[in-house]
């Protein structure tokens, strides 16, 4: 069964450093998403991406964040200068062609900012 | 901004009995609702969904009920199994857009053998 994969599973970084989280969505999906879950809190929408551009973003997704689909398979989230409060699980998701097609989530990357 | 609320952080149920997980929402624009299950160290796994034109959707042991007037939905699991022990997230979005899914805070279900 196709699945969304994410690398790395755990990333530790120093405050102020840049990190890139990587995702490989399901191959025939057209919509891509990033969510995050701070420990003990709910899963929060960050951004959606379609047709090579951001389609919607939340207030969390400020100028420190960017997304890119550098090739036909990868989808990345970059945090330019990490802060302590960026420590969280980051989940990538993808969905098919319809507006109500199910979003399938990857296993997540745990980001720890020291 | 708690547009989707799950007021019970945890629930314990005996194996074989019914589990009922509840969810309330405040945004009347939401027209598509989902339940996701999440195990530790894994991403959310889709369980079942319902659109606002329906009031019930069933898939095997899982049934979701939607009461639009009360802005309330519930997930019924019958019979509950130990493997169902996980955190269950209620979620919602406005269809026709880009699926900006809003999640609830989750309910941790423990099914006791």
Account of the 3D structure:
The complex is a heterodimer of chains A (114) and B (113). Chain A is globular. The N and C termini of chain A lie far apart (37 Å). Chain A has no helices and eleven strands. Helices cover 0% and strands 50% of the residues of chain A. In chain B, 0% of the residues lie in helices and 53% in strands. The radius of gyration of chain B is 13 Å and the shape is globular. Classes of the chains: A mainly beta (114), B mainly beta (113). Chains A and B meet through strand 4, strand 5, strand 9 and strand 10 of A and strand 4, strand 5 and strand 10 of B.
Task: Please describe the structure with a list of short key phrases separated by commas or semicolons.
heterodimer, A: 114 residues, mainly beta, seven-stranded mixed β-sheet, 11 strands, B: mainly beta, six-stranded mixed β-sheet, five-stranded antiparallel β-sheet, 53% strand
Helix content of chain B: under 10%
Task: Return the structural class of chain B.
Answer: mainly beta
Beta-strand portion of chain B reads over 45%
Largest sheet of chain A: 7 strands, mixed
Q: Overall mean pLDDT score of chain A?
A: 93
Tell me the Rg of chain A in angstroms.
13 Å
Q: Oligomeric form of this entry?
A: heterodimer
Portion in strands of chain A: over 45%
Low-pLDDT regions of chain B: none
Largest interface: A-B, 26 and 25 residues
Structural class of chain A: mainly beta
Globally, the shape of chain A reads globular
């Amino acid at each position: 069964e196709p699945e969304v994969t994410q690398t790395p599973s755990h990333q530790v970084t120093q405050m102020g450093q840049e990190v890139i989280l990587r995702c490989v969505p399901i191959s025939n999906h057209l919509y891509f998403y990033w969510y995050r879950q701070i420990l003990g809190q709910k899963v929060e929408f960050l951004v959606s991406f379609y047709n090579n551009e951001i389609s919607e973003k939340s207030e969390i997704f400020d100028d420190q964040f960017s997304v890119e689909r550098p090739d036909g398979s990868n989808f990345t989230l970059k945090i330019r200068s990490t802060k302590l409060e960026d420590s969280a699980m980051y989940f990538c998701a993808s969905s098919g062609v319809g507006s109500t097609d199910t979003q399938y989530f990857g296993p997540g990357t745990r980001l720890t900012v020291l | 901004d708690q547009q989707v609320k799950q007021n019970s952080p945890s629930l314990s149920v005996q194996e074989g009995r019914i589990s009922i997980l509840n969810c309330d929402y405040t945004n009347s624009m939401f027209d598509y609702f989902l339940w996701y299950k999440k195990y530790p160290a894994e991403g959310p796994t889709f369980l079942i969904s319902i659109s606002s034109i329906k009031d019930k959707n069933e898939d095997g042991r899982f049934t979701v009920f939607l009461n639009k007037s009360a802005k309330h939905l519930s997930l019924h699991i019958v019979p509950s199994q130990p493997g169902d022990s996980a955190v269950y997230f209620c979620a919602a979005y406005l269809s026709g857009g880009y699926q900006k899914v809003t999640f609830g805070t989750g309910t941790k279900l423990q099914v006791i053998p």
